[in-house]
Specification:
alpha+beta; 434 residues; nine-stranded antiparallel sheet; Nucleotidyltransferase, domain 5; 13 helices; 2 domains
Length: 434
Amino acid sequence: MIEKVGDTSYMKVDNYVVKCRAYPTKEQQEKIDKILDGIRVAYNVTAYEISHGNEELTKPDKKDSSVRWPDFAQCMKKDWLDYLRKYHEPVTNVPATSLSSSVYGIFGKDMKKAWETKRLPCGLWRPSFYTAKHPRTSFTVRTMASGFDISEVSKASRIGVTGLGKVKIRGWRNDLLYGDKPSCTFNEYYKGQRKAFGVTVSKDNCGDYYLIVMLQTVWRPIRDVAEKIPVGIDVGIKEIAILSDGTKYENKHFKKEVRSKKKRLNRKVSRRYGWANIKFREEHKKDSEITPSKGYERAKLKMARLERKVARRRENYNHFLTNDIASKASFVAIESLNVKGMMKNHHLADALSDAAMSDVLSKLKYKSTWHGAEVAEIGQWEPSSQLCSVCGYRNREVKNLSVREWTCPECGTRHDRDINASRNILRIAQSNRT
């Protein structure tokens, strides 16, 4: 749904995520780290007990009582949580909703997701655990609307978080509107309401903190486009997206640009006394109290900042191109690709991960829906590259990826491989609609 307020058009979005940089005080940082450590302990203990068939957390198979399956609902019950708090002191630091809520709790969601990839009975399931090398990095709590202190003048605002108090943030979107019609700011709409929000507190590898808030039914400003057109999209390696109107979006290769610098940092990290060093790992097996050196932590931080910079640049570019496509499309046709399977090809894996093709397709789908465009997928085995988009002749030689241009022997049309494929994707998707 799109409404106009003055000269600005607003689009209604049912679920919208706002991610803000958080600036907790030192005391709040310590509390966040204690909560993360408590969740790590709670998760690891629970996962261990389930995998070893604890009768309180498992249920027998309907046909064979000797086989037991995880009962994730029991993991969030009061009896089990009281046990964790009694015998594992770090768990007492964790807010109750971060453990027990069916929506925000860590057991029913994270652990179930990990188990469902293999779906093995308790005796055979070997869950992954959080460790010092791979720590827990986020938790979610419920916060009432009254806990939001959003400034409409300055860039800094504050959000109340259970157990932490008001946390300073930057990056809140004041251009969003709320209500049945786009007429109210956040403060105006939620003033006096007893509305609960899920607020996720996260910490990245660089040690920076973020607050992520899920908002329901907001109005987001959008760019006006005079005339929208149906668009077919072919994704690739050299160009990340090729449209049926001939527009091409370059694959920027952000990871490739810093490859030599990352290589130097990798060598530096592996020489320092830490998890990337073989000597440290061997000694840590003998004495778990050994910790990485300060030099290792500094080198690891430099690596994390470099990787974050690459990820941010890629994320920003992917937002730009998907916004640009979605805003001008009345109908979006894409090919359903098995990106996970394609990643197994070692010739393509690095380029695919650098382009984040799955991320592009995901963003394209939800942003097209936001802009009111229908999204249709065609089968991944459709010969979209081999068909002439003018006469329909199939040239099987185009199956070879080295063929970038070809001339149709039937009608004589000269084709760019990718543009021709995107036009065929659009044609096939439109024909499937009827």
